[in-house]
Amino acid sequence: MEITKTPKQNEIKRDWIVLDAKGKVFGRLIAEVATILRGKHKPIYTPNFDCGDFVIIINAKEVQFNGFNKLEDKKYFTHSGYFGSTKSKTLAEMLEKQPEKLYRLAVRGMLPKTKLGRAMLKKLKVYTSDSHPHTAQVADSKKA
């Protein structure tokens, strides 16, 4: 009888994958990022532990959106917990001022809502330009 071998946390090799957001559709890019962070692209994928890779997104502001007037119509809300403290920002404002937060919110919705999902989200790095400080890690891994 064959037994399925589950790898241990120290046996998992994590790669650093660089994704260029220039000209890509936002939703499709985020779905790809969530798949890589969870590790579903690997043959050793197990849903109960983190086996995903690190993801670096460059050129975050130059992504495209499908949909008529989505940049003006879609809103993101924040609430501090006090009465009347609800604030909203449009997608265009978020993309201009806080693209890192926009990407994190989108990816967080596609990951598990547990400690495991929060650990996976820490492996996402978002930068608005071509340069990033992870060149040493990426040199050993593959580029996408």
From TrEMBL:
GO terms for molecular function: mRNA binding; structural constituent of ribosome. GO terms for biological process: negative regulation of translation; translation. Transmembrane segments: none annotated. It holds the Pfam family Ribosomal_L13. It comes from the Bacteria. One of its GO terms (cellular component) is cytosolic large ribosomal subunit. Keywords: Ribonucleoprotein, Ribosomal protein. CDD domains: Ribosomal_L13. Belongs to the universal ribosomal protein uL13 family. Part of the 50S ribosomal subunit. NCBIfam families: rplM_bact. This protein is one of the early assembly proteins of the 50S ribosomal subunit, although it is not seen to bind rRNA by itself. It is important during the early stages of 50S assembly. This is Large ribosomal subunit protein uL13. It comes from Helicobacter didelphidarum. The lineage of its organism: Bacteria, Pseudomonadati, Campylobacterota, Epsilonproteobacteria, Campylobacterales.
